[in-house]
Design goal:
The structure holds two protein chains of two kinds.
Chain A (H helix, E strand, L loop, with lengths): L4 E3 L2 E4 L5 E6 L6 E7 L5 E8 L2 E5 L7 E4 L6 E5 L8 E9 L2 E7 L3 E5 L1
Parallel strand pairs in A: 2-11
Antiparallel strand pairs in A: 1-3, 3-8, 4-5, 4-9, 5-6, 7-8, 9-10, 9-11
Chain B lengths: L3 E3 L4 E4 L4 E7 L6 E7 L5 E7 L4 E3 L2 E6 L4 E6 L8 E10 L4 E4 L3 E6 L1
Parallel strand pairs in B: 2-11
Antiparallel strand pairs in B: 1-3, 3-8, 4-5, 4-9, 6-7, 7-8, 9-10, 9-11
Classes of the chains: A mainly beta, B mainly beta.
Chain lengths: ~110, ~110
């Protein structure tokens, strides 16, 4: 069964550094998303992406965040200058095809900012 | 503020029990509803979509009451492997297909 994959599984970085989180959505999907979950809290929407542009973004997704689909398979989230409060689990999701509404999540990248 | 509210639990039940979870959502214009399951430190996994007519998948039954803005999940004949956090999830804004998650209800099934 096709799956969303994410790399790395765990990223440790120093405050102020840039990080890029990578995702490979399910191959025939057209809509891509990033969510985050701070430990012990709800899953929160960050951004949705379709047809090479952002469809919607939340208040969390400020100028420090950007997304890109650099090629036909990868979907990336960049955080330019990480803060301590960016420490969280970041999940990529995708949807498309017959089940347009059903989003399938990758295993996540645990980001730790020191 | 657009919210999805759930009882955090935990619900501690014996194997074989029937357990029900409830969820309320604030935006009456919401269009799509889901139950996801999340194991500790893992990704949310889609359990089932919730339709207005109600739907069943094996031991799991989901109901939607649009008038009361209320969603439920019933699990029959609980298994040890059902132990997880159950997330009520609503698409309140079809434009960007953004999902709004509840905080989850934790279920512990004991032998």
């Amino acid at each position: 069964e096709p799956e969303v994959t994410q790399t790395p599984s765990h990223q440790v970085t120093q405050m102020g550094q840039e990080v890029i989180l990578r995702c490979v959505p399910i191959s025939n999907h057209l809509y891509f998303y990033w969510y985050r979950q701070i430990l012990g809290q709800k899953v929160e929407f960050l951004v949705s992406f379709y047809n090479n542009e952002i469809s919607e973004k939340s208040e969390i997704f400020d100028d420090q965040f950007s997304v890109e689909r650099p090629d036909g398979s990868n979907f990336t989230l960049k955080i330019r200058s990480t803060k301590l409060e960016d420490s969280a689990m970041y999940f990529c999701a995708s949807t498309g095809g017959r089940s347009y509404n059903e989003q399938f999540f990758g295993p996540g990248t645990r980001l730790t900012v020191l | 503020r657009k919210e999805v509210e759930q009882d955090p639990g935990p619900f501690n039940v014996p194997e074989g029990a029937t357990v029900a979870f409830n969820c309320t959502y604030s935006n009456s214009a919401s269009q799509s509803f889901f139950w996801y399951r999340q194991d500790c430190r893992k990704e949310p996994k889609l359990l089932m979509s919730v339709y207005s007519s109600g739907n069943e998948d094996g031991r799991f039954t989901a109901q939607l009451n649009r008038a009361s803005q209320y969603i439920s999940l019933l699990i029959r004949d609980s298994k040890l492997s059902d132990s997880a956090t159950y997330l009520c999830v609503v698409n309140m804004d079809n434009a960007g297909n953004m999902l709004t998650f509840g905080g989850g209800t934790r279920l512990m099934v004991k032998p």
